[in-house]
Amino acid sequence: MTKQVKIIECPRDAMQGIKSHFIATDAKAKYINALLRVGFDTIDFGSFVSPKAIPQMHDTAAVLSKLDLSKTVSKLLAIVANVRGAKDASVFEEIDYLGYPFSISENFQMRNTGKTIKQSIGILEELLNIASTTNKKVVAYLSMGFGNPYGDIWNVDVVANWTEKLSSMGVEILSLSDTVGVADGKTISYLFKNLIPLYPKIEFGAHLHTTPTTWHEKVDAAFTAGCMRFDGAIKGFGGCPMAKDELTGNMPTEKLLSYFTQQKANTNLSAMSFESAYNEALDVFY
Q: Which of 38, 57, 199, 202 is the most buried (most CB within 10 A)?
């Protein structure tokens, strides 16, 4: 039986860290429109966060108004970091998912959102309520899901305990995030093999950051352990700004596609449209 894999393309993650120049709203929209024609399950297209924190994303609402959603099967996801952002995003019917980065590292949660873990749990509860009343779903990203270089206690039991907590709150989509690229195949495999059977109501995803030499090990470990949802960004653009290795970026989407082609898994993507979007990316990221 052919396995069905969901690919989530993340232009937002690719763009948000660019500080050398502002990518024009029209250029963002043109690129995302090209991605919408590829057939990705979801496009992580923008964020409703403080423009002081992420100035590159301050035009997300304007970008949204320029997207052609008439002929796409892709759904739209917007990242939010607080209740105000969730309320701002929820007024747009075009947005299907609210993405929330929840870190199991106290230090990183403070770095990323300026909130403690306790505060973040409260925010997530409110986000789930907002989503349920506006016909949206929450995608929770478990930041530091595969390791933590910031000194907080980390082990697979910590990840399991937080998975149980988020499940009890009603989270239905949980993406384990290799936030700074520290994951190895063994850890990835262990977590997915053990968590996926325990939580059949949760759709688990893999948001993997990688160096050019470790991508295959990470994807293979997640896929063979049962993960069927993968985040990527064309050419691996972007990644966590706090990553210590400048070669650590997002999982390159073209690597994902080559891997799943070899595995004979179905991604429902148009090869011609992907090539066109790939060429657009080369004009946007320079």
A: 38
